[in-house]
Amino acid sequence: MKVFFKIALVFAVMLSFAHAEAVETLNGAGATFPYPVYSAWAFDYSKVTGVQLNYQSIGSGGGIRQITERTVDFGASDAPLKAEQLLKDKLLQFPAVIGGVVPVANLENVNPGELKFDPDTLCKIYLGEIKTWNDNRITKLNPGLKLPSTDITVVYRSDGSGTTAIFTNYLSEVCPAWKEKVGAGTAVKFPVGIGGKGNEGVANYVKRTKGGFGYVEFAYAKQNKLDHVQMKNKAGHFVQPSFESFEDAAATADFDAKKDFYLWLVNAPGKNSWPIAGATFILLAKEKTDSNKKVVTFFDWSFKNGDKKATELVYVPLPKSLKDKIRGYWKANRLQ
Q1: Rounded to whole angstroms, how far apart are CA atoms 265 and 314?
Q2: How far apart are CA 202 and CA 196, in angstroms?
Q3: Number of H helices, E strands in the chain
Q4: Whether 246 contacts 312, CB under 8 Å
Q5: Which of 16, 189, 290, 308 is 20 to 30 A from 329 (CA-CA)?
Protein backbone atom coordinates (compact mmCIF):
# COMPACT_ATOMS: atom_id res chain seq x y z
CA MET A 1 0.00 0.00 0.00
CA LYS A 2 2.83 2.38 0.88
CA VAL A 3 4.54 1.63 -2.43
CA PHE A 4 1.29 2.26 -4.32
CA PHE A 5 0.80 5.57 -2.47
CA LYS A 6 4.34 6.69 -3.33
CA ILE A 7 3.85 5.79 -7.00
CA ALA A 8 0.52 7.67 -7.06
CA LEU A 9 2.12 10.70 -5.40
CA VAL A 10 5.00 10.77 -7.90
CA PHE A 11 2.51 10.45 -10.78
CA ALA A 12 0.43 13.34 -9.41
CA VAL A 13 3.52 15.53 -9.12
CA MET A 14 4.53 14.64 -12.68
CA LEU A 15 1.07 15.54 -13.92
CA SER A 16 1.19 18.89 -12.12
CA PHE A 17 4.56 19.68 -13.70
CA ALA A 18 3.26 18.65 -17.11
CA HIS A 19 0.22 20.88 -16.65
CA ALA A 20 2.44 23.80 -15.57
CA GLU A 21 4.61 23.34 -18.64
CA ALA A 22 1.51 23.17 -20.85
CA VAL A 23 0.27 26.58 -19.73
CA GLU A 24 1.49 29.15 -22.23
CA THR A 25 2.69 32.40 -20.68
CA LEU A 26 3.53 35.76 -22.22
CA ASN A 27 5.87 37.97 -20.20
CA GLY A 28 5.68 41.75 -20.38
CA ALA A 29 6.94 44.62 -18.25
CA GLY A 30 6.77 48.37 -18.09
CA ALA A 31 4.32 51.22 -17.64
CA THR A 32 2.11 51.34 -14.55
CA PHE A 33 -0.25 53.73 -16.39
CA PRO A 34 -2.05 50.93 -18.36
CA TYR A 35 -1.68 48.20 -15.72
CA PRO A 36 -5.38 48.14 -14.71
CA VAL A 37 -6.60 47.66 -18.28
CA TYR A 38 -3.87 45.18 -19.28
CA SER A 39 -4.71 43.11 -16.20
CA ALA A 40 -8.41 43.10 -17.06
CA TRP A 41 -7.74 42.16 -20.68
CA ALA A 42 -5.32 39.40 -19.60
CA PHE A 43 -7.88 37.92 -17.20
CA ASP A 44 -10.55 37.76 -19.89
CA TYR A 45 -8.09 36.47 -22.52
CA SER A 46 -6.90 33.63 -20.28
CA LYS A 47 -10.50 32.47 -19.75
CA VAL A 48 -11.00 32.22 -23.51
CA THR A 49 -7.60 30.90 -24.62
CA GLY A 50 -5.84 29.52 -21.54
CA VAL A 51 -2.85 31.76 -22.31
CA GLN A 52 -1.53 33.58 -19.25
CA LEU A 53 -0.13 37.13 -19.38
CA ASN A 54 2.47 37.92 -16.73
CA TYR A 55 2.81 41.72 -16.74
CA GLN A 56 5.21 43.44 -14.32
CA SER A 57 4.10 46.98 -13.51
CA ILE A 58 7.60 48.43 -13.05
CA GLY A 59 7.45 51.75 -14.89
CA SER A 60 8.16 52.70 -18.48
CA GLY A 61 11.90 53.01 -17.93
CA GLY A 62 12.06 49.43 -16.69
CA GLY A 63 9.92 48.22 -19.58
CA ILE A 64 12.19 49.88 -22.15
CA ARG A 65 15.25 48.41 -20.43
CA GLN A 66 13.84 44.87 -20.25
CA ILE A 67 12.76 44.69 -23.90
CA THR A 68 16.08 46.24 -24.96
CA GLU A 69 17.86 43.50 -22.97
CA ARG A 70 15.44 40.88 -24.44
CA THR A 71 14.37 39.56 -21.02
CA VAL A 72 10.62 39.86 -21.76
CA ASP A 73 8.30 39.19 -24.69
CA PHE A 74 7.19 42.82 -24.81
CA GLY A 75 7.92 46.12 -23.12
CA ALA A 76 5.40 48.85 -22.39
CA SER A 77 6.03 52.58 -22.26
CA ASP A 78 3.90 55.69 -21.99
CA ALA A 79 6.78 57.63 -23.52
CA PRO A 80 6.95 56.84 -27.25
CA LEU A 81 10.43 56.11 -28.55
CA LYS A 82 11.84 58.12 -31.42
CA ALA A 83 12.75 56.46 -34.71
CA GLU A 84 16.50 56.60 -34.05
CA GLN A 85 16.18 54.75 -30.72
CA LEU A 86 13.89 52.12 -32.25
CA LEU A 87 16.39 51.60 -35.07
CA LYS A 88 19.36 51.41 -32.70
CA ASP A 89 17.71 48.83 -30.41
CA LYS A 90 15.90 46.99 -33.24
CA LEU A 91 12.43 47.56 -31.80
CA LEU A 92 8.89 47.94 -33.10
CA GLN A 93 6.27 50.19 -31.48
CA PHE A 94 2.50 50.62 -31.55
CA PRO A 95 -0.10 52.27 -29.26
CA ALA A 96 -2.53 50.16 -27.22
CA VAL A 97 -4.90 52.51 -25.40
CA ILE A 98 -5.29 56.19 -24.44
CA GLY A 99 -5.78 57.66 -20.98
CA GLY A 100 -5.12 60.69 -18.83
CA VAL A 101 -2.71 61.76 -16.12
CA VAL A 102 -4.38 63.77 -13.35
CA PRO A 103 -3.10 65.93 -10.49
CA VAL A 104 -4.52 64.70 -7.16
CA ALA A 105 -4.66 66.22 -3.69
CA ASN A 106 -5.36 65.22 -0.09
CA LEU A 107 -7.42 68.05 1.37
CA GLU A 108 -10.17 67.96 3.99
CA ASN A 109 -13.53 69.42 3.00
CA VAL A 110 -12.63 69.38 -0.70
CA ASN A 111 -14.43 66.90 -2.95
CA PRO A 112 -13.01 65.31 -6.11
CA GLY A 113 -13.22 67.74 -9.02
CA GLU A 114 -13.86 70.88 -6.93
CA LEU A 115 -10.31 72.24 -6.92
CA LYS A 116 -9.38 74.27 -10.02
CA PHE A 117 -5.88 74.71 -11.41
CA ASP A 118 -4.41 76.48 -14.39
CA PRO A 119 -1.10 75.53 -16.04
CA ASP A 120 0.88 78.32 -14.35
CA THR A 121 -0.26 77.36 -10.86
CA LEU A 122 0.51 73.68 -11.42
CA CYS A 123 3.94 74.57 -12.76
CA LYS A 124 4.78 76.86 -9.83
CA ILE A 125 3.81 74.18 -7.29
CA TYR A 126 6.20 71.70 -8.89
CA LEU A 127 8.92 74.35 -9.14
CA GLY A 128 8.51 74.96 -5.39
CA GLU A 129 7.38 78.58 -5.81
CA ILE A 130 3.89 77.95 -4.38
CA LYS A 131 4.31 76.28 -1.00
CA THR A 132 0.96 76.41 0.84
CA TRP A 133 -2.62 75.58 -0.08
CA ASN A 134 -3.93 79.04 0.81
CA ASP A 135 -1.47 80.82 -1.50
CA ASN A 136 -3.40 83.61 -3.22
CA ARG A 137 -2.60 82.19 -6.68
CA ILE A 138 -4.61 79.09 -5.74
CA THR A 139 -7.38 80.87 -3.81
CA LYS A 140 -8.04 83.25 -6.72
CA LEU A 141 -8.87 80.26 -8.89
CA ASN A 142 -11.04 78.77 -6.13
CA PRO A 143 -13.04 81.56 -4.47
CA GLY A 144 -15.72 79.17 -3.19
CA LEU A 145 -13.33 76.83 -1.38
CA LYS A 146 -11.90 77.25 2.11
CA LEU A 147 -8.33 76.13 1.60
CA PRO A 148 -6.03 75.47 4.60
CA SER A 149 -2.67 77.03 5.37
CA THR A 150 -1.20 73.53 5.21
CA ASP A 151 2.09 73.08 3.39
CA ILE A 152 1.83 71.42 -0.02
CA THR A 153 3.71 68.11 0.05
CA VAL A 154 4.68 67.54 -3.56
CA VAL A 155 4.90 63.89 -4.65
CA TYR A 156 6.49 62.69 -7.89
CA ARG A 157 7.51 59.40 -9.49
CA SER A 158 10.89 58.15 -8.30
CA ASP A 159 11.22 55.50 -11.02
CA GLY A 160 11.67 55.92 -14.75
CA SER A 161 8.10 56.61 -15.75
CA GLY A 162 6.03 57.29 -18.84
CA THR A 163 3.47 58.95 -16.58
CA THR A 164 6.23 61.39 -15.63
CA ALA A 165 7.14 61.77 -19.30
CA ILE A 166 3.55 62.76 -20.15
CA PHE A 167 3.33 65.09 -17.14
CA THR A 168 6.69 66.80 -17.74
CA ASN A 169 6.08 67.11 -21.48
CA TYR A 170 2.88 68.94 -20.61
CA LEU A 171 4.67 71.24 -18.13
CA SER A 172 7.42 71.92 -20.67
CA GLU A 173 4.86 72.92 -23.27
CA VAL A 174 2.82 75.26 -21.05
CA CYS A 175 5.53 76.63 -18.76
CA PRO A 176 8.76 78.09 -20.22
CA ALA A 177 10.39 78.18 -16.77
CA TRP A 178 9.85 74.45 -16.35
CA LYS A 179 11.23 73.72 -19.80
CA GLU A 180 14.33 75.78 -19.07
CA LYS A 181 15.01 74.59 -15.50
CA VAL A 182 13.81 70.96 -15.50
CA GLY A 183 12.71 69.71 -18.92
CA ALA A 184 10.85 66.56 -19.89
CA GLY A 185 11.55 62.85 -19.76
CA THR A 186 10.79 59.58 -18.04
CA ALA A 187 13.05 60.69 -15.17
CA VAL A 188 13.86 64.31 -14.33
CA LYS A 189 15.35 66.07 -11.32
CA PHE A 190 12.31 67.51 -9.56
CA PRO A 191 13.12 70.74 -7.69
CA VAL A 192 10.96 69.81 -4.66
CA GLY A 193 9.02 66.93 -3.19
CA ILE A 194 9.26 63.25 -2.34
CA GLY A 195 9.34 60.30 -4.71
CA GLY A 196 6.96 57.35 -4.89
CA LYS A 197 7.52 54.22 -6.95
CA GLY A 198 4.89 53.63 -9.59
CA ASN A 199 1.43 55.14 -9.87
CA GLU A 200 0.66 52.97 -6.84
CA GLY A 201 3.42 54.57 -4.78
CA VAL A 202 2.40 58.14 -5.63
CA ALA A 203 -1.27 57.40 -4.93
CA ASN A 204 -0.39 55.86 -1.54
CA TYR A 205 1.86 58.79 -0.55
CA VAL A 206 -0.83 61.34 -1.40
CA LYS A 207 -3.53 59.30 0.31
CA ARG A 208 -1.71 59.16 3.65
CA THR A 209 -0.23 62.69 3.63
CA LYS A 210 -2.41 65.68 4.61
CA GLY A 211 -1.76 68.39 2.07
CA GLY A 212 -0.22 65.85 -0.32
CA PHE A 213 -0.25 66.61 -4.04
CA GLY A 214 0.84 64.35 -6.88
CA TYR A 215 0.04 63.07 -10.38
CA VAL A 216 -1.28 59.63 -11.31
CA GLU A 217 -3.13 57.85 -14.07
CA PHE A 218 -6.85 58.50 -13.59
CA ALA A 219 -7.78 54.87 -12.77
CA TYR A 220 -5.47 55.06 -9.73
CA ALA A 221 -7.11 58.30 -8.61
CA LYS A 222 -10.53 56.66 -8.78
CA GLN A 223 -9.46 53.43 -7.12
CA ASN A 224 -7.83 55.29 -4.23
CA LYS A 225 -10.64 57.87 -3.97
CA LEU A 226 -8.21 60.76 -4.36
CA ASP A 227 -9.34 64.34 -4.97
CA HIS A 228 -8.59 64.99 -8.62
CA VAL A 229 -8.52 68.58 -9.87
CA GLN A 230 -10.07 70.42 -12.76
CA MET A 231 -7.55 71.81 -15.24
CA LYS A 232 -7.77 74.84 -17.49
CA ASN A 233 -7.08 73.53 -20.99
CA LYS A 234 -5.58 75.09 -24.11
CA ALA A 235 -9.01 76.35 -25.21
CA GLY A 236 -9.32 78.23 -21.90
CA HIS A 237 -11.98 75.98 -20.34
CA PHE A 238 -11.85 74.24 -16.98
CA VAL A 239 -12.42 70.54 -17.63
CA GLN A 240 -12.78 67.44 -15.50
CA PRO A 241 -10.75 64.32 -16.22
CA SER A 242 -13.21 61.88 -17.75
CA PHE A 243 -13.63 59.40 -20.56
CA GLU A 244 -15.17 62.20 -22.66
CA SER A 245 -12.35 64.70 -22.06
CA PHE A 246 -9.70 62.05 -22.79
CA GLU A 247 -11.59 61.06 -25.93
CA ASP A 248 -11.74 64.71 -27.02
CA ALA A 249 -7.96 64.94 -26.67
CA ALA A 250 -7.52 61.69 -28.60
CA ALA A 251 -9.72 62.98 -31.43
CA THR A 252 -6.95 65.39 -32.46
CA ALA A 253 -4.34 62.62 -32.73
CA ASP A 254 -2.80 61.77 -36.08
CA PHE A 255 -0.76 58.62 -35.51
CA ASP A 256 1.48 57.71 -38.45
CA ALA A 257 2.56 54.08 -38.95
CA LYS A 258 5.53 55.29 -41.03
CA LYS A 259 6.82 57.05 -37.90
CA ASP A 260 6.15 54.00 -35.69
CA PHE A 261 3.17 55.93 -34.25
CA TYR A 262 5.40 58.41 -32.37
CA LEU A 263 3.06 61.09 -30.96
CA TRP A 264 2.37 63.07 -27.78
CA LEU A 265 -1.21 64.14 -26.89
CA VAL A 266 -0.50 66.83 -24.27
CA ASN A 267 -2.18 70.25 -24.43
CA ALA A 268 -4.60 69.15 -27.14
CA PRO A 269 -6.60 72.01 -28.72
CA GLY A 270 -10.13 70.58 -28.36
CA LYS A 271 -12.73 72.64 -26.49
CA ASN A 272 -13.30 69.89 -23.92
CA SER A 273 -9.90 68.17 -24.11
CA TRP A 274 -8.17 67.02 -20.97
CA PRO A 275 -4.72 68.65 -21.35
CA ILE A 276 -2.54 65.91 -19.78
CA ALA A 277 -3.52 62.95 -21.96
CA GLY A 278 -1.37 60.32 -23.59
CA ALA A 279 -1.24 57.03 -25.42
CA THR A 280 0.61 54.07 -23.99
CA PHE A 281 2.78 51.96 -26.28
CA ILE A 282 3.90 48.35 -26.76
CA LEU A 283 7.52 47.61 -27.72
CA LEU A 284 8.64 44.43 -29.49
CA ALA A 285 12.07 43.10 -30.41
CA LYS A 286 12.19 42.76 -34.20
CA GLU A 287 13.90 39.37 -34.27
CA LYS A 288 11.58 37.62 -31.77
CA THR A 289 9.19 36.48 -34.49
CA ASP A 290 7.41 33.67 -32.64
CA SER A 291 6.73 35.50 -29.38
CA ASN A 292 5.85 38.70 -31.27
CA LYS A 293 3.06 36.89 -33.10
CA LYS A 294 1.67 35.65 -29.76
CA VAL A 295 1.81 39.16 -28.27
CA VAL A 296 0.12 40.60 -31.35
CA THR A 297 -2.59 37.93 -31.14
CA PHE A 298 -3.30 39.03 -27.55
CA PHE A 299 -3.55 42.73 -28.45
CA ASP A 300 -5.59 42.00 -31.58
CA TRP A 301 -8.03 40.04 -29.40
CA SER A 302 -8.08 42.94 -26.92
CA PHE A 303 -8.74 45.46 -29.69
CA LYS A 304 -11.72 43.34 -30.81
CA ASN A 305 -13.08 42.39 -27.38
CA GLY A 306 -11.67 44.79 -24.79
CA ASP A 307 -13.17 48.19 -25.60
CA LYS A 308 -15.99 47.86 -23.06
CA LYS A 309 -13.58 46.93 -20.26
CA ALA A 310 -11.22 49.79 -21.21
CA THR A 311 -14.11 52.27 -21.09
CA GLU A 312 -15.23 50.98 -17.68
CA LEU A 313 -11.72 51.72 -16.40
CA VAL A 314 -11.79 55.23 -17.96
CA TYR A 315 -9.37 54.53 -20.79
CA VAL A 316 -10.17 55.51 -24.38
CA PRO A 317 -10.12 52.54 -26.77
CA LEU A 318 -8.28 53.21 -29.99
CA PRO A 319 -10.57 54.24 -32.86
CA LYS A 320 -11.19 51.63 -35.55
CA SER A 321 -9.17 53.59 -38.13
CA LEU A 322 -6.10 53.53 -35.84
CA LYS A 323 -6.56 49.82 -35.05
CA ASP A 324 -6.59 49.17 -38.81
CA LYS A 325 -3.38 51.19 -39.20
CA ILE A 326 -1.78 49.09 -36.47
CA ARG A 327 -2.89 45.84 -38.13
CA GLY A 328 -1.31 47.09 -41.36
CA TYR A 329 1.89 47.81 -39.42
CA TRP A 330 1.84 44.30 -37.98
CA LYS A 331 1.42 42.76 -41.43
CA ALA A 332 4.18 44.92 -42.90
CA ASN A 333 6.51 43.64 -40.16
CA ARG A 334 5.29 40.03 -40.53
CA LEU A 335 3.73 39.90 -37.08
CA GLN A 336 0.34 38.68 -38.25
Answers
A1: 16
A2: 5
A3: 14, 12
A4: no
A5: 308
Partnered with residue 56 across adjacent β-strands are 29
- Rounded to whole angstroms, the Cα distance separating 241 from 274 reads 6
Exposure string of 20-55, with b = 16+ CB inside 10 Å and e = fewer, is eeeeeebbbbbbbbbbbbbebbbeebbeeeebebeb
CATH 3.40.190.10 residue ranges in the chain?
Answer: 23-99+254-264+277-332, 101-250
Smallest Cα–Cα separation from 278: which of 97, 94, 31, 82? 97
Counting beta carbons within 10 angstroms of the beta carbon of residue 106, is it exposed (0 to 12), middle (13 to 18) or buried (19 or more)? buried
- CA–CA distances in Å: residue 92 to residues 31, 98, 262, 336: 16, 19, 11, 14
Burial of 11 per CB tally in 10 Å (0-12, 13-18, 19+): exposed
Contact 91, 309 (CB under 8 A): no
With 0-12 / 13-18 / 19 or more C-beta atoms within 10 angstroms meaning exposed / middle / buried, residue 256 is: exposed
Asked if 195 contacts 156 with a C-beta cutoff of 8 angstroms, the reply is yes
> What is the architecture of the domain spanning 101-250?
3-Layer(aba) Sandwich (3.40)
**In the structure, what pLDDT confidence band is assigned to residue 23 with cuts at 50, 70 and 90?**
low
Does domain 23-99+254-264+277-332 sit in CATH 3.80.30.20? no
Q: What is the pLDDT of residues 84-122, one digit of tens each?
A: 999 999 999 999 999 999 999 999 989 999 999 999 999
* Stated pTM of the model: 0.85
Nearest to 241 by CA among 253, 254, 227: 227
3-state SS, residue 47: helix
